[in-house]
Amino acid sequence: MEYGETSAVEELVIDYSVADPSDLAELPGYEASDNMDVADYVSLEESRQLLLNSGFTEVE
Questions:
Q1: Residue 2, beta-bridge partner list
Q2: C-alpha pair distances (Å), 13 with each of 6, 10, 16, 18, 52
Q3: What separation in angstroms does the CA of 27 have from each of 1, 4, 57, 58?
Q4: Exposed site from 4, 14, 30, 36, fewest CB < 10 Å?
Q5: Alpha helix (H) ranges present in 1-60?
Q6: Three-state DSSP class for residue 47
């Protein structure tokens, strides 16, 4: 975790070849799309939109 004066940056790595998406959906605080319990992949665009809708800001 890296803290700035007005920001915090956290890097999170999930190995989806090991983690079961339906198990992740059960974690407290984990937000996923509605079909996460039956999905066998992670959509980058859906993940991006979920973060933006949650108030995160995209930095390029």
A1: 9
A2: 24, 10, 9, 12, 19
A3: 20, 28, 23, 24
A4: 4
A5: 21-24, 44-53
A6: helix
Chain segment 3-49, per-residue pLDDT in tens = 999 988 888 888 878 888 778 778 877 776 666 666 667 788 888 88
Beta strands in the chain (DSSP E): 2-3, 8-9
| Distance between CA atoms of residues 40 and 38, nearest Å | 7
Counting every residue, how long is the chain?
A: 60
| Beta-carbon count within 10 A of 51 CB | 13
The residue behind tokens 């992670």 is 42
The single-letter DSSP state of residue 59 is -
Global pTM reads 0.48
